[in-house]
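Study this pair:
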Amino acid sequence: MLSHDELRTRIARLDGRGYKAYKSLRGAYAFPRFTLYLDHIQGDPFAAPTAARVIIPQAQAGFPRHLTEHPARQVGLAHYLAERFAAAARGVSRSRGTGHSGQIRMAPVGQQMLRRTAVLVSPQAIEARFTVGLPAAGRRILAREAIQLLLDDVPRVVAQSLFYAAIDPAQAQAYAFTAEDAEALRALLEPKGWVAFLAEGSLLPRRSGVDDRPLPDGVPLTVPPTLRAEVTLPHAGRVAGLAIPQGVTLIVGGGFHGKSTLLRALEYGIYNHKPGDGRERVVSHPRTVKVRAEDGRYVAGVDISGFINHLPGGRTTECFHTTNASGSTSQAAAIMEALELGARVLLIDEDTAATNFMIRDRRMQALVHKAKEPITPFIDRVRELYTERGVSTVLVIGGSGDYLDVADTVIWMDAYHPRDATAEARAVAARFPTGRQPEAQGPLPRPRRVPLPGSVDAAKGRREVVVKVHGPRSLQVGRAAIDLSAVSQLVEPAQARAIGLALAYAATRYFDGRRSLAEVAQRLMADLEAQGLDALAPTPWPWGDLAEFRALEWAAAFNRLRTARVRCPQEE
């Protein structure tokens, strides 16, 4: 390993040379309190910046062991350090030439505290991964600027953000303990028979659909006495909140009164949220899935016969393929795909659902006989999902009172305040019977698709694996674009990037024509649990812009990949 002084000398010798001469700097350099790695050198000032990282032994970093030993605390602390690093980098980054010259960047983090590769915390060390734009004038090396960047700016950012003596200990502890409390709270849900818990006083409204920060003047959550529960958390102590029980839950109320806001909080309750977010103690079952209609999506061999059957012309729906799904077929497919990967809670907002999939009222049943209607509406399957499969459903319903007949719990949102309207709803249902007839015929199928080799081709040009992202819900793998706009529980581009790499990883290792999609997902997630996200990197150097994802979203990406091919049980 070379010293930082030797790095200075090596850079000085490159002054004025062509940009590719920077590649000679690849390697490790010992600084007084950390080691700097230049893992991959960009070949052009306009290309993707140079991949760098620093590793600081805890003997130098100085973080107490109580913050670095517990897995949840590690994630919370890493999130805090990533925020600190990014802020410090913004303070020193400036243009030092053409292209990306002089820029120091770390993958951005949002409101959710995820396990990421940007910052890794362990009892042994702190590791931070970032990019630097090596300076150039045109395509000629600017050695003096490069020396200032790597030997002045980078050490300054590291010193300001990654050493315990330089940070706010109370803040760092708050991030770590908040993450641990959220994990502890989520672990209580299933034993207590809940699908979600929202602490009293939580701030659910967000600033906008594209700004996930809390709304400054949002209404704090109040809790109706009949749905109130208390839990004890490791650090927050006794916490009261709204406990949503298992079963079928309706969220009702007038327009603009907070129905979708509550559902959205449950949608993102699968993640831990940082201090100050307002949702720090809002958690959902870890296998909660938001499903919706998605006109035009690709569907690969999904058994939707429990919802849609007896199509005109005798076309089967037990292994349904289409390149242009309707709203009803796409929603049926989304539900069956979620069940295939082990979903335990479904979230549905009628605003994004297909009306004819959700309900057929008595008048329509009288006009169009069931023999002429291929769709079995969701209302006739929702109780079966719970009683036979243990899958709960939370629905935002504002226009179909027929769902009152199948609900276990009804929450009425009134000016963003929830109240328990279950007894009133049952009285209304008894007073105004719908007269509709249930239309479900036979049990829901149990999907088991087998992904076929060749479904994923991540190569492009001379590169074996090419993954590009454009935001958290737009992904390209090889030459194939995957539209993830309806996979709303993805929150960061780093997740989409990791999913793209995971598709390539799983396809080369586990798509053998025998393992089911669920089995492949199980093996993939086991590998990531054992090896970390670094197992996905297709290069010799580690990546700093990956974030954890669930098997459910990984499968959702596969399901929307238009080259995906599967074998259905009927074909075996």
User: Anything to note?
Assistant: The chain has three domains: 2-167, 181-444, 450-571. DSSP finds 15 helices and 30 strands in the chain. The longest helix spans residues 169-192.
